[in-house]
Design a protein that fits this description.
Layout: H1 3-18, H2 21-28, H3 32-46, E1 51-53, E2 58-60, H4 62-90, E3 94-100, H5 102-119, E4 123-129, E5 143-145
Parallel strand pairs: 3-4, 3-5
Antiparallel strand pairs: 1-2
Helix pairs in contact: 1-2, 1-3, 1-4, 2-3
Amino acid sequence: MNNALYNQIRIFQSIAREGNISAAARKLEITPPSVSNALRLLEEHIGHPLFVRTTRRIELTETGQQLLEQTAAAVETLEKSLEIIRDQNQEPSGAVRITLSRFAYLLILKPAMAAFCQQYPGIQLEISVYDGTVNIIEERFDLGIRFGDILEGGVVARPLMKPFVKGYTPPLPILPNMACPRCLPISIITG
């Protein structure tokens, strides 16, 4: 079915529902001559009149009633399907499978999860926390977060953050016999 024929059927259905050409034109937000022209083209295509027209009324013919009954469900199903697809384009939805190390989960994902889930309620996160290597493609993950250069072939990597190294220590007491920092005892632990 071409686009013009589909539009003609939609216009025909609107005329049948609204009861006249002017009301159908208002409902469809097009001009009454456009509605009349579409109906004429559809009747020519089918080879039968679809309405009996008088100066005050318009009524379905037997052929028109058959066409209305046979196309109503199909057009409604098609329009609902298109609406569902349009809605999917407006708000992201579906499942996203993520694999990441325990450290990446605690440092990157966990702090951002509440805000992400609130902003994208249609997305279901499936999270796998595992410190070993994972074949992202075979395991069918959408995303993997790892530290370092652990990559299999065919995987594209993007940096999420710059590497950082910081030293941490508990507060050191100042003892009277340690007047200068050079006097601090230092132990080096090797593994």
